[in-house]
Amino acid sequence: MAEERTYIMVKPDGVERGLVGEIIKRFESKGYKLVALQLLPTSRELLNEHYCDLKDKSFFGKLINYMLSGPVVGMVWEGKDIVKTGRRLLGETDPLKSAPGTIRGDYCIDVGKNLCHGSDSVESAQREISLWFPNGVLSWERHNVHKLIYE
Ligand code: GDP
Ligand code: MG
Questions:
Q1: Which residue has the least CA distance to atom 25 on ligand 1?
Q2: In what order do the strands lie in the sheet with 116-118?
Q3: Whose CA is nearest to atom 6 of ligand 1?
Q4: Which residues line ligand 1 (CB under 6 A)?
Q5: Is 146 an annotated catalytic residue?
Q6: DSSP letter assigned to residue 3
Q7: What is the pTM of this model?
């Protein structure tokens, strides 16, 4: 069976604050495998598609402007139960409700500046990965490390 994948994105505030490395580190040291990574400016078209289920929310315009304020770092991570566990590593949508030890719990305060995105289901992950990485992601094996992480 193919390994589960999720789309994790460092938002413009995270990139500008120099937290890309810290966010990558959380996923790397947990044991997950990086299969795609890019720094890119976002566009209204990509964001409208990415956040299509939030179009009717009152904060939608604010969210799009926030996301257009600078480049983002998009990543695809792979591993057991990565979608759910990835969201737990990020913390709650509202950083003030996020436990210390999570990324949002440790590094931010307001929901409109919450540093990072993580797919909320396996289906959303597939949709987001093909949206942000239309040319696909890498398949590669960690020959030695895999057996130190999985039983
Ligand atoms: P997520 O999956 O945890 O990122 O949360 P959602 O999918 O519900 O919302 C997407 C993003 O919209 C969040 O990460 C926030 O950046 C932003 N957002 C959500 N709720 C609010 C809100 O009430 N006010 C503002 N300003 N932004 C919000
Ligand atoms: Mg979401």
A1: 112
A2: 33-40, 72-78, 5-10, 116-118
A3: 93
A4: 54, 59, 62-63, 93, 111-112, 114, 117, 120
A5: no
A6: P
A7: 0.97
- Residue 34, helix vs strand vs coil: strand
- The one-letter code for the residue type at 28 is E
Give this complex's ipTM. 0.98
* Residue 71: count of CB within 10 angstroms of its CB: 15
> Long-range contacts made by residues 42-46, C-beta under 8 angstroms, separation at least 24?
42/12, 42/67, 42/68, 42/71, 42/72, 43/68, 44/68, 46/131, 46/132
43: tokens are 């566009």
Average pLDDT, the chain: 97
Nearest alpha carbon, ligand 1 atom 17: 112
Q: Tell how far the Cα of 93 is from the centroid of ligand 1, in angstroms.
A: 6
Q: Contact at 8 Å (CB) between 115 and 107?
A: yes
